[in-house]
């Protein structure tokens, strides 16, 4: 039996008195965590929810999410995590797309949840931490997890939907278990006694697998921050003596922006930092490591890969700007448009194969067949290269590629240059429709507090460092760039102002 919830059962047995979850002043031991999950499983059983049924979770980064998630898995049902900020029509889609029987939702957005369930049907539980505890207080514990196989679906995670409606990636008990086991043992070396920062959303695969599931596996304490704020993050690192920080690039950039407010002792407990979710600018990596005296290990993965596919392993050479080498049990390659492997150093689409790959997109056989070939290779949609040492580098998203006058321009390359300018805090390079060239290169920029520059200066800065066809002709400033729930910059939501070209 492979039910992922068995990890919680084992850790509660061996380390029951250890703090599993911390959120502010609230603490929950592994024994209490396991007991609550077992009673939630009973709640589901009494509602007629059984193995293979889908149950939504629309909760924030509090213990309630973790309890609901492991209760659902213990019952043998399938968890469908959702962003609590979704609107009613989006929630309705997630519920109807998966045929979910029930939804755990935060009371903070009760109206949206009710409106969605009224249309989609099913049971709705509006719960915060205290409300969930009260609801299950008198229920008996389900004796043991329902038997599940390694290939059985544990979670349906919906992709971001950049090309249309979100697709539900089916992640298995075996794939998730493999990913968190490798993450703990060989990648971040998380072990019993560690304190892991839980500021990544638990409804996102990075926070779910590398943060929560890995902590449960090894008996580490997960200290949760309901909403990321750089000052709060540093304060919690100092208060709880956090040893492992998991973040996305914008989190590292934000912490750098407040670093001067804290002494070096505030983050002295940090041993390992890992970055994923988007490419980490080399300048941000170097500045963070110098400021916080802690190495960042960059990795790569997607919702469809559970998520980790490659990583800069701590016991091997690390290459700045690289996403490292494939993790244990996973294969990667770079191919051209016909699926043939390209020469070393040449750009192509990254493909991935291994036990971490989803079984498919829920009820979308054609989309599944387009994403995973007959030999099990998953097409990532990311353009990358691999060097002679087997290290992979992301060039850009296949769909973000800008073609200017027949020449390929990869936004990340231009973003890396702009990040080197001392006034730039955040940047996103986008393609702008052009009558004769097809696309022109543009850049939305957010400046560091107190910094000053102008578009012409930034254009000249880039122009000196890249080929003439690559530098941005349009640069405009924003107070901050639009971001998704994980802090990832959303290029597709950037509005291009009507401005004259800068040349």
From TrEMBL:
Name the record gives this protein: Long-chain-fatty-acid--CoA ligase
One Gene Ontology MF term: medium-chain fatty acid-CoA ligase activity
UniProt KW Ubl conjugation keyword: no
EC number in record: 6.2.1.3
Keywords from the UniProt entry: Ligase
Superkingdom as given in the UniProt entry: Bacteria
Protein species of origin: Gordonia insulae
Family assignment from sequence similarity: Belongs to the ATP-dependent AMP-binding enzyme family.
Alphabetized SUPFAM superfamilies for the sequence: Acetyl-CoA synthetase-like
Upper classification of the organism: Bacteria, Bacillati, Actinomycetota, Actinomycetes, Mycobacteriales
